[in-house]
Each structure stands twice: as structure tokens, then as C-alpha cells.
Amino acid sequence: MKRVLLYTFLLLGVAIFHVDELAAQARIARSEFICYDKREDAKRDIRTGIDKYIALSPELQFETEEGVVRAVYEQTIEVPAAWNDYNAYLHTENIGADYTIFVNGRQISSPIDQFTPTDLYISPYLDQGQNTVAVVIVDEAYMSLLDEGLTQPARKQFDNCYIFAQRRLAVYDFNVRMLPDSLDRFAQLRLDVTADNSFSTPETIEIGYDIYAPDGKLMEYSVNDLRMEGFSRDTLSFAPYIYHSNPNRWSAENPKLYTLTLYVKRSGILWEYIPLNVGFAEYGYNDRGEITLFGKPLALKKSAYNAAADRVTTEKEIKALKAKGINCLMPSYPQPSWFYDICDRVGIYVIDCAAISSPTDATNRDVDRTPANAPWLEQEYLRRVETMYRRAQNHVSIIAFSLGNTPSGNGYNMYRAYELLKSYGDTRAIIYEGAEGEWNSDIEF
Predict the structure, then answer these.
(1) Sign of the CA dihedral 396, 397, 400, 401?
(2) Spatial CB neighbours of 323, under 8 Å, sequence gap ≥ 6
(3) How do residues 99-141 score in pLDDT, each as one tens digit?
(4) Out of 122, 177, 312, 390, which could bridge 29 as a Cys pair, Cβ 3.0 to 4.6 Å?
(5) Is the dihedral of CA 49, 52, 53, 54 positive or negative?
(6) Confidence class of residue 1 from pLDDT cuts 50, 70 and 90?
(7) Whether the predicted pLDDT of 237 surpasses 90
(8) Residues 6+ away with beta carbon under 8 Å from 344
(9) Which of 118, 119, 114, 100 is nearest to 155 (CA)?
(10) Residue ranges covered by each domain of the chain
């Protein structure tokens, strides 16, 4: 009963502005990745060899119909002294309902929608020794307004939820493209790696990569130093030419992938590996409302599709759709990371979509009548759109981004969401069916 009262009291009246400023910073938007201790483990996604990786599978403590709390799941984790030199991150997905996160009894996130895999920075809330991580299922009315009609297949609850720790001098994020050179002769790798120095003192990090062609040939490699001030982030950029690449231009008909591995060294010692698959493709759109690949319009045969309950079934279904002539999938919310891996490898285009669906009162533009024009929901819209973009931005199969999967009204929040995505400088189209001719959709689709 004490636990029930604690969580209910802490969540009374919870809204997106009611989490303190420090806790609001826990939720981050970046590429979805983990770091492996060995290159072979990175290639095969073997996580048992990662020293600082904890699978999260909390146990049910209680269920209730009181207030906004519906259930609480908890797991005790042990944080050793060695983690003092590490940053800890929590990845959550497959919760099965909207939720918020508590660490050691402190709420560190506003409510999180069940459809968007999410990463949180949890180091400030951890203590040396035993810690309690709680997933608190909530029922917030405004969350359901944004999720109208969205459903997910039944997956194992907490599947692919985990905590992992990176050194306090490490890769924080990355953006990778393979684009034609200025004369369209071959590819140029555009690799921007953002490093984080969480130490108070200046530090030097060595960031390297190697990239292999689809036939297994080593094409390029490099290791560069980056000197960073204390408590800072900086970006190291690589831009080598990748020769003999035109036969490997990626398309749904020719889904050839390069294999790139990022790694970090310090004092000559390899610290961590991050594996990536990279495709050579350049997307855009023209004034006729067509999505282009290497400047030429794509003939798209589209189908609504969300990933099935598991990878094997999903791959079979995608291949069956492709065999029927479908070459473009339109999911209705962000998908598991393995969904995009399958699409990259099998060869099928994807229009990624934020978890926004609010068809009720969509045509009413009065303030607060449609969620799209409710300014108090601005941060919720921006979080959903930014997380959708950041976590999957490096996948070559993604040809455009959608602000919502149904006509869900238009107004302030949708304008701000469009402006946010535009600020990233991506050449891929931003689409919103509910724009109805307004400026916050690059093409009508």
C-alpha cells in the first residue's frame, strides 16, 4: 500500500510540464545504438560479451485503478564503483502502454508514449550499489488523444529494454551518408561523429572507422584525434571518396550495403565498437511533388505496414509484399530498429512516421480543440517527431518523414514540428497529409 500511495502521490496531476528541469533532460533523441567490446560481437549483435550491459525485465509490483497509475514494475540493479567513469543510458520499448520512469523513487521523465522507442540518460539518478528502476504505467488523457487508432502487435513485454554504460569520453551520436561527389563520378562518405566529454578536464578522444564494400573489400579507414574541453560536445567529420561505387548505388532493386564500423581508442587501446550498414543513395523531391533518388523520380507503389511481432515474420511479410510489386512501406509509428535493418537489406523504401494520430476534431482550428493547435502540447509533439527522426536517420531505406499517419489537424504544433525537422538540413521530404496545402508539407502525398 505504501508503494501505491507513493507513486500515486508523485503522479497526481502529472503533465508534460510537471517534471523538474533536470529530469526533463533525461530523455534524449539520438541514433539508436549500443557499443560492443569486441568487433566480432558487434557484427553479430552478441550482447553477452558487453561488460556494462543490463537487460531490463522488471517484475510487476502492483496494479491499480486509482488516479493516473495503472501498474508499477520494478527491477533492482547493482551499480559498481567502476561506473563512476561511465555514463549510463536506459533504452525502453515494448512496454505495452504509456509509461513514465522512476529511478530510486524519483520521477525522471514525463509520460512516454508506448509507440516510440526511447533513450534516457540516467547517470545523475544512480547511486553506487543497489538501485531501483521502476516503469510506471500511466493513463493520461492527453496521451490517448495523440494515439487514436494506433495499435501494436503483441510482443514480449520489455523485449529489448536495457541499460548500458559508455565511458565518459565516448561517441554520443553520428550521422552517416554516402552521396555522389560533385561530378557524380563516385560516392563520398559523409560521416559526422559527435563525441561527448563528461569529465571536467580537457580530454583527447581517438575516433576511427573502417568501411567495407558489399563484396567485402576494404575501401577506406581512418583514425583522428579530437581534443575536447571539459563538459563539452564536439563533432569530428570524415569525408573520404569511395571509388568504384556506382555499381553499388542503393535502390529497392539493388539493395547493396557497405559495412562501416565506428570505434574509439584512447592511448592506443580500442574501447568500443559501433556497427553500421550504409547505403549509397541521394534522396530529394521535385516541384511536381515526386520523391527522387539521384535526382530521378521514384515510381512508388505504397502499402501501409507495421512490423509483425518478431523479426522472422516481419521479413517474410516484407518479402511477400515486395513480390507483389510493393516497393514502399508506410508505417504508422516508429518501428523497432530491426525493421529498418530488414528494409535496408531486403530493398524496400520506407516513409517513416511519428506516433501522432488525432483525427477527432481535426478540422476544428480553434485553440485547444485539435491537439495539433494546443500550444501546451508543443513539447510532446516535438519529442515524438525528433525521436522518430534521430533514432532512424541513418537508414538508407528511409526516403521521407511523415509528421503523422492520419489527417490529425493542423496548427501551431504541426508547424513547429515541421520547422524542427527542416532545421536538420536533411534533403528528404517532410510529409504531412493533414497540411491540406499549407506550407508544412514539402509535397502532397
Answers:
(1) negative
(2) none
(3) 999 999 999 999 999 999 999 999 999 999 999 999 999 999 9
(4) 390
(5) positive
(6) very low
(7) yes
(8) 255, 257, 277, 279, 395, 396, 397
(9) 114
(10) 2-167, 169-278, 283-435
169-278 fold: Immunoglobulin-like (2.60.40)
Give the contacts of 252 (CB within 8 A, at least 6 positions apart).
322, 327, 328, 347, 348, 349
The length of the chain is 445
Specify the CATH number for 283-435; select among 3.20.20.80, 4.10.91.10, 3.40.50.300, 3.40.47.10.
3.20.20.80
Other beta carbons within 10 Å of 214: 18
Architecture of domain 2-167: Sandwich (2.60)
Q: What Å distances lie between residue 397 and 19, 216, 348, 404, CA to CA?
A: 36, 21, 6, 19
Q: What is the pLDDT of residues 329-342, one digit of tens each?
A: 999 999 999 999 99
Residue written as grid cell 516513409: 351
Q: Starting at the edge strand that comes first in sequence, how are the strands of the sheet with 349-353 ordered?
A: 302-304, 328-330, 349-353, 398-402, 429-431
Residue range 257-312, pLDDT digits in tens:
999 999 999 778 888 999 999 999 999 999 999 999 999 999 999 999 999 999 99
